[in-house]
Amino acid sequence: MEQLKKLLFSGLKKKLIILFLLMALVPLMLASYFSISTMQETIKNNFIATSSKEMKKASDTLNLYFEEVAKNSKFLASRPVVKKADETITTYINKRTKEKLKMTPLKNGEVEAEIYKFYEDFAKTHKNVAYVYLGTKDGGYVQWPRGVNSAEYDPRERPFYKQAINSQEEVVLTAPYHAQLDNNIIVSTVTKIKNNDGEVIGVQGLDVSLDGLTNMIKNIQIGEEGFLILATEQGKILAHPQNPKFNFQTIDKLNIKALNNLKNISSDNFFAEMNKQDYLFNIYTDQETNWKFISVIPKEELTAKTETLYWKIIITTLFVALAVILIAIYIGDLVSTPIINATNFAQEISNNNLEVEDLKIESRDEIGDLGQALNNMRNNLRDYLDEVKAAYQQLGAYTEEISQLNKKLEYQAEHDSLTELPNRSKFMKELEAELDEEKEGVVMLLDLDNFKEINDTLGHIYGDRLLKRLGARLLKLSNEEFFVARYGGDEFLFLLKNRTDLESIETQINKIRNSLNKAFLIKNNELEIDFSIGITLYPNDAYSPNQLITNADAAMYRAKENTKKDYFYYNIKLIEKIEERKRIKKILEKALNNNGFELKYQPQIDLDNGQAEYLEALIRLKEYDISPGKFIPIAENSGLIIEIGRWVTKRVIGKISTDLAKGKAPKKIAINFSVHQLEDHNYIKFLKETLQENNVAPELIEIEITESILIKKEEEAVKFLKQLKDLGIKLALDDFGTGYSSLNYLNYIPLDKVKLDKSLNDKFLEAKASAMGNLIKLFHSFNLPVVAEGIEDKEQYQRLQEKGCDYIQGYLFSRPQKWEKIKEITTINFIEKINEE
Question: One Pfam family name from the record (predicted)?
Answer without folding.
Answer: dCache_1
